[in-house]
Design a protein that fits this description.
binds magnesium ion; 65% helix; Rossmann fold; six-stranded mixed β-sheet; elongated; 2 domains; ABC transporter transmembrane region fold; ATP-binding; alpha/beta; binds adenosine-5'-diphosphate; single chain
C-alpha cells in the first residue's frame, strides 16, 4: 500500500525527473532559499511589534518574547533596537530579491532544457522507428503527438514547475509557522487537508475527462488529415459531405468534453475563496478566545498562515490545470515507449557500395499470421536490371521493401555482398538505395532542395545537381522556370505534372549517387506518352545501376536482364523476357492480354 501511495504521488515527479535529474533539486533548493529569505524578513515584524508595544507602554528596554529569531539574536549579541531590526529586514528582503532573480533565470534555463531534450529525444527515437511498426500505426495520431501533444507536454511541465515551487513555499512557511507557534502549524495542516478533501473528487472528474479529450482529438486529427489527403477522391465521388459530417460528430464530442472541463473549472473557482476565508476566520476565533495568545504572535503567525494558504490555493489551482494535461503526459510516455520497443535493429558492418550481389535465400515474410512472402530464392548481380511482375497482391512491393531494408525477413536470409543484412549498418546501406514509387515525394522547398535534399550549395554539389537534372531530362524545364533551380515546388510553389514529379524523383536519386535503384510502379500513374519518355530515361540508366523494377505494363520490362514472375508470394518463373514467355504459359497469357 505504501508503494502504491509513493507511485501515485511520485509518478509525475519521476516522469520529469528522468529528463531533468539534478536540475529538479536545484529548482527546489533555490525556491527554498527564496522562501526562507521571505520568511526571515516577515519574522522581523515580531520584534518590531514588540518594540512598538514597549514604546507605547513607556518601558525603556524591550522585554521580547522568546522565539527562534529573538533567541538567535540574543545568542549572537544583536541588540533589539528599531534601527537594527529595520536594517536586518531590508537585508533579508534584498536577499529575497537576489534569490528571486537567480531562481527565475534558473527556471527559464530548466524550461529550455526540458523543451529541447524532450523534442530531440522524440525526434531521435522517431527517426529510428521501424517501418513495419510505422505502417500499422495511425499517422494522424503520430502527427498530433509530435506537434500538439508535445506542446501540451511543455505546458504540463510549466504547471509542474510551479506546483513544485508552490509546494516548497508551503513547506517553508509551515516551518516558520511551526517555529513561531506549533499550534498554528497544526491548524494549517488541518485546514489544508480539509481543503484538499473537498477538491479531491473534482480532480478525479477532470482526469477522466482529459483522457477522453486526448482520445477524441487524436481521432479528430486523423479524420481531418484523411479528409484533406483524400479530398480529390471524396469530392469526385460525392462523399465529401458525408465524410465532413463524420468530422462534425467528432468536433461536437470534443467540445462537449471541453465544456465539462470548463464547468468543473467554474465550480472550483467559485468555492475556493469562501472556504479559505472560513478556515482563516475559524483560526482567529480559536486563537483569541480559546488559546488566549499574544496579539503580536497572532499577527505574524497569521501572516505565515495566510501566505501558506495562498500558496496552497495556488497549488490546488495549478494542480487542477496540470491534471488536465495528465492525459498528454501518459500519451507521450506511451508513444515514447512504443518508439523504444519498435526501434529498428541495426548491425555494425559499414556498407560502402555494392560490389557483388543482392541475394535472397529462402526468404519469408508475414504480417502477423498472414504469410506474404513464402520462401523466395533470388540473386541480383551488380548492375543487373531485374523486373518483378505478377498480379497485384502477389507480393512485389513487399519484396522491394525487404530489398531496400525497410522490412526485415521473418525467415531465411538476405545477403548483400555476401553479408547478412542484419549485420550491416542499415543507414549506410540505405544511403545508397534510390526508391521511386508512384507516390512521388515532393517537399515544400525549392527544386534544388527537392533534388539534393538540402545539400550545401558548394560548386561541387551544384555541378552534381546540374548533372542529375540533365540525366533526368529536367534541365530544359528548370531553365525555363522564373527562379530557375530556386523555384519553389509543392503547396507553396508551382505544382508539377505527374511526369515532372517523377523526373524530380529520378533526379533526386541520381544526385544521391545510389548503387541500387528501386522503381515500384513508378510510371503506372502516368499517361502512356509520359510513361514512354520516363521509361527511356530509366532505360538510359540500365547497366550503370543495379535496378529493380516493378512494372504493370510489360512493355517497359522488355529489356530487363531478368524478369521474375511472382504469384501469391512465390516465384513461379524467371528468365529474360523471351525465355520467360516461352517457359511460362501464365506470362505468355499476360503478354498476349496486353497485346505486345
Ligand atoms: P503487390 O505489390 O504485388 O501488389 P504487395 O506486396 O503490396 O503486393 O502486397 C502483398 C500482400 O501483402 C497483399 O495481400 C496485401 O494485402 C498484403 N499487405 C500489404 N501491406 C500490408 C500491411 N501493411 N498489413 C497487412 N498486409 C499487407
Ligand atoms: Mg505493389
Amino acid at each position: 500500500m505504501f508503494k502504491a501511495f509513493i507511485r501515485k504521488y511520485f509518478k509525475n515527479f519521476t516522469y520529469f525527473y528522468q529528463y531533468l535529474r539534478h536540475r529538479i533539486f536545484v529548482v527546489i533548493l533555490l525556491t527554498f532559499l527564496f522562501g526562507a529569505m521571505d520568511g526571515l524578513g516577515l519574522s522581523m515584524f515580531l520584534p518590531l511589534f514588540q518594540i512598538a508595544a514597549n514604546k507605547e507602554s513607556g518601558e525603556a528596554t524591550a522585554a521580547v518574547e522568546d522565539n527562534f529569531l529573538t533567541n538567535f539574536f540574543t545568542s549572537v549579541g544583536i541588540e533589539f533596537s528599531l534601527l537594527n531590526m529595520l536594517i536586518l529586514m531590508v537585508a533579508f528582503f534584498s536577499f529575497k530579491g537576489l534569490f528571486y532573480y537567480i531562481k527565475s533565470i534558473n527556471d527559464a534555463k530548466v524550461s529550455r532544457y526540458f523543451i529541447v531534450s524532450t523534442r530531440k529525444n522524440l525526434l531521435e527515437k522517431f527517426s529510428r522507428l521501424s517501418f513495419r511498426y510505422f505502417i500499422k500505426s495511425d499517422v494522424g495520431a503520430i502527427q498530433n503527438l509530435m506537434t500538439n501533444e508535445i506542446n501540451n507536454l511543455l505546458y504540463a511541465f510549466r504547471d509542474y514547475l510551479i506546483i513544485i515551487q508552490k509546494g516548497v513555499m508551503v513547506i517553508v512557511y509551515m516551518i516558520f509557522a511551526f517555529a513561531m507557534n506549533a499550534e498554528f502549524a497544526i491548524l494549517i495542516i488541518l485546514g489544508g487537508l480539509l481543503f484538499n478533501f473537498i477538491f479531491q473528487w473534482l480532480y478525479k472528474i477532470t482526469m477522466s475527462a482529459s483522457r477522453k479529450l486526448v482520445k477524441e482529438s487524436n481521432n479528430y486529427q486523423g479524420t481531418i488529415i484523411q479528409l484533406v489527403s483524400n479530398f480529390k477522391y471524396l469530392k469526385a465521388t460525392g462523399f465529401v459531405r458525408d465524410y465532413a459530417k463524420r468530422v462534425t460528430g467528432n468536433i461536437e464530442s470534443i467540445e462537449s468534453v471541453n465544456y465539462r472541463l470548463a464547468k468543473i473549472g467554474s465550480v472550483t473557482g467559485a468555492i475556493r475563496e469562501p472556504i479559505l476565508i472560513f478556515v482563516v476566520a475559524s483560526v482567529i476565533l480559536l486563537q483569541v478566545y480559546v488559546r488566549d495568545s499574544a496579539l503580536s504572535t497572532i499577527i505574524v503567525s497569521l501572516l505565515f498562515f495566510y501566505r501558506a494558504l495562498t500558496n496552497v490555493t495556488d497549488l490546488q489551482a495549478q494542480y487542477n490545470y496540470f491534471l488536465g494535461k495528465v492525459g498528454t503526459m501518459e500519451n507521450v510516455a506511451s508513444f515514447s515507449k512504443d518508439l523504444d520497443a519498435n526501434r529498428e535493429v541495426n548491425g555494425k558492418v559499414n556498407y560502402e557500395k555494392l560490389h557483388s550481389s543482392l541475394s535472397f535465400q529462402n526468404v519469408t515474410f508475414a504480417y502477423g499470421d498472414h504469410h506474404i512472402i513464402k520462401g523466395i530464392n533470388l540473386d541480383i548481380a551488380k548492375n543487373q536490371t531485374v523486373a518483378l511482375v505478377g498480379e497485384s497482391g502477389s507480393g512485389k512491393s513487399t519484396m522491394v521493401n525487404i530489398l531496400a531494408g525497410l522490412l526485415n525477413t521473418n525467415g531465411g536470409k538476405y545477403y548483400i555482398n555476401g553479408e547478412s543484412l542484419e549485420n550491416l549498418d542499415k543507414y549506410s546501406f540505405q544511403k545508397r538505395v534510390g526508391y521511386i514509387s508512384q507516390d512521388t515525394v515532393i517537399f515544400n522547398a525549392s527544386i534544388y532542395n527537392n533534388v539534393t535534399l538540402w545539400a550545401e550549395k558548394t560548386p561541387e554539389n551544384l555541378k552534381r545537381f546540374e548533372d542529375a537534372i540533365h540525366r533526368a531530362h529536367l534541365a530544359t524545364f528548370v531553365g525555363a522556370l522564373p527562379d530557375k533551380s530556386d523555384t519553389l515546388l509543392g503547396n507553396n510553389g508551382i505544382n508539377l505534372s505527374g511526369g515532372q514529379k517523377q523526373r524530380v524523383s529520378i533526379a533526386r536519386e541520381l544526385f544521391k549517387e545510389v548503387d541500387i535503384l528501386i522503381l515500384d510502379e513508378a510510371t503506372s500513374a502516368l499517361d502512356s506518352e509520359t510513361e514512354k519518355i520516363i521509361q527511356e530515361n530509366i532505360d538510359a540508366l540500365k547497366g550503370q545501376f543495379t535496378i529493380i523494377i516493378i512494372a504493370h505494363r510489360l512493355a517497359t520490362v522488355r529489356n530487363a536482364d531478368k524478369v521474375v514472375l511472382m504469384s501469391d508470394g512465390q516465384i513461379i518463373g524467371s528468365g529474360d523476357f523471351e525465355e520467360l514467355k516461352n517457359s511460362s504459359l501464365k506470362f505468355k497469357k499476360m503478354v498476349q492480354l496486353q497485346e505486345l
